[in-house]
Design goal:
binds nicotinamide-adenine-dinucleotide; globular; Rossmann fold; NADP-dependent 3-hydroxy acid dehydrogenase YdfG; 282 residues; seven-stranded parallel beta sheet; oxidoreductase; SDR_fam; 7 strands
Amino acid sequence: MQDFQGKVAVITGGGSGLGRELALSCAARGMHLVLGDVDEKGMQETLRLVAETHPATESATMKLDVSSLEQVEALAELCKSRFGAAHLIFNNAGVSVGGPAWENTVADWEWVMGVNLYGVVWGVKVFTPMLIEQGEGHIINTASAAGWLNGPSMAIYNVTKHSVVALSETLALDLRDAGSKVGVTCLCPAFFPTAIHESARNRPEDKADTVEPSEMMKKRTEMIKQAVAKGRIQATDIAEMTLKAVENDQFYVFPHRKIKDLIKMRAAAAEAEGAAFDSLNP
Ligand SMILES: NC(=O)c1ccc[n+]([C@@H]2O[C@H](COP(=O)([O-])OP(=O)(O)OC[C@H]3O[C@@H](n4cnc5c(N)ncnc54)[C@H](O)[C@@H]3O)[C@@H](O)[C@H]2O)c1
């Protein structure tokens, strides 16, 4: 898609970090916004920033949990009732939990898989038929460099992001084979500064963390926090790169160039059939 003026952008996780910057980038292109997030205050802050810079933007918000199919269906209904359509679908909401795989609890798995994987699965399931029927639209799934490379202490996150890459590639192929003009982009950034390391702020009570973290888990969690804070590319730049990718109908987006080299190194490690490749200590 190239002409964004007056079109509708749906952004999950629109209340913080990358989702907020995507909202600003879409508003700058004259788009209407539909934000979905568990954090109502965060979404209102996004809309306040949008109103400051692009006061003519029309918008709607829905407090929702993307891990619920019914709530994602309600988001699509909101798009239809408010704007009659949806064009750019950013399946972007995400959370993170660290620690060695054997220490992660059932609640950890259910929470992170629910948001990072099922959130995207439901976004694809609910919105793709709408876009196909319209004959235009683009689905943008926020994966991660962790969709290609596995650093230690991020098992659940890595699993979900590999799955998002798999889902996105397959979706793009299926749309191609169906002769559809609906586009797909899979965004794969490395660490960049946002509030992702404080994901527990939005963790639901029924999936609460009940286990005292081990020293190893605390150390790894701190390491990830530092890596996020030190990220060299800002969310605002990643949002702009993503919108340009949509304009160019580009499938992959790797904002951090180093990641492509690491993927080649991982392929070489697979070729050698030796030790598991550690992307944080290559
Ligand atoms: N920051 C990084 O280093 C980094 C790197 C690669 C990929 N990503 C991905 O970028 C995306 C955006 O994350 P971010 O870095 O902006 O983090 P963030 O914490 O700043 O924003 C995430 C947003 O998702 C919302 N959210 C959490 N659970 C939700 C749920 N169940 N339903 C709806 N919304 C929910 C949060 O309230 C928040 O507004 C995520 O998919 C993340 O995995 C981030």
